[in-house]
């Protein structure tokens, strides 16, 4: 799960870099060029398959671990005080994971399926603009990014720990700080985009 998680973390950075082109204020010219490149480049198409497999494997591993944990301890503790031996972020991993999965399905239906499968006459920029000008969709998007931040706050550090890369206290401190910064900045970067379109629409 650590390998797929870190692979998806790299994807988030690349995806955010492309999505931030929506904020250029050029009517979508740069973003549409980026979307066209991503949908026509043969290498990118291969990477999309790997990305899909990465998501599927990561989701399967998460569900398996949750099931295995419940199966090995079907009876709960008599005295249950999880806050003393685990963080809020680790305790909410199953919940945030499920919400992120729902978000991913909605997100794919709104953009990937609409453009690449159904052949929408709208450009990718227009699809994004129309979706983000809807307060309900934007609200769902922002809330999902908050939960993504929770998921990353634990997952980033946990991935390095599982791979045995935290070999001393100094490295542990660096990875904890890097994980906290990543978990804050990346979801924030995504969340800014729908807020930007809502502000343009109403103000």
Layout of helices and strands, plus pairs?
Blueprint lengths: L1 H18 L9 H12 L1 H31 L15 H4 L1 H25 L6 H9 L2 H28 L6 H34 L1
Helix pairs in contact: 1-3, 1-7, 1-8, 5-6, 5-7, 7-8
Round the Cα radius of gyration to an integer and report it.
Answer: 19 Å
**What separation lies between the terminal Cα atoms?**
44 Å
CATH superfamily: Fumarate reductase/succinate dehydrogenase, transmembrane subunit
Main CATH class:
Mainly Alpha
The CATH topology, please? 3 helical TM bundles of succinate and fumarate reductases
Give the helices and strands as they follow along the chain. HHHHHHHH
| Derived structural class | mainly alpha
Main sheet properties: none
Question: How many beta-strand elements?
Answer: 0
Mean pLDDT: 90
- Helix fraction bin: over 70%
Low-pLDDT segments, ≥5 res: none
Give the oligomer, counting copies of the same chain as homo and different chains as hetero.
single chain
Anisotropy-based shape: globular
Number of helices: 8
How many domains comprise the coordinates? Answer: 1
Strand content: under 5%
């Amino acid at each position: 799960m650590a390998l797929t998680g870190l692979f998806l973390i790299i994807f988030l950075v690349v995806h955010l870099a492309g999505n931030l082109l929506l904020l250029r204020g050029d009517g979508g010219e740069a973003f549409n060029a980026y979307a066209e490149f991503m949908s026509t480049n043969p290498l990118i198409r291969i990477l999309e398959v790997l990305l899909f497999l990465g998501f599927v494997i990561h989701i399967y591993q998460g569900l398996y671990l949750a099931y295995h944990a419940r199966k090995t301890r079907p009876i709960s503790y008599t005295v249950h005080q999880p806050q003393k031996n685990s963080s809020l972020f680790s305790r909410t991993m199953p919940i945030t994971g499920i919400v992120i999965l729902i978000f991913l399905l909605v997100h794919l239906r709104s953009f990937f399926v609409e453009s690449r499968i159904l052949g929408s006459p709208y450009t990718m920029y227009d699809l994004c603009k129309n979706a983000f000008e809807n307060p309900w969709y934007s609200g769902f998007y922002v809330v999902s990014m908050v939960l993504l931040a929770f998921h990353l706050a634990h997952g980033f550090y946990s991935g390095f720990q599982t791979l045995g890369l935290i070999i001393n206290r100094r490295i542990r401190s660096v990875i904890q700080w890097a994980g906290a910064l990543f978990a804050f900045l990346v979801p924030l970067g995504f969340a800014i985009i729908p807020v930007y379109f809502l502000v343009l629409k109403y103000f």
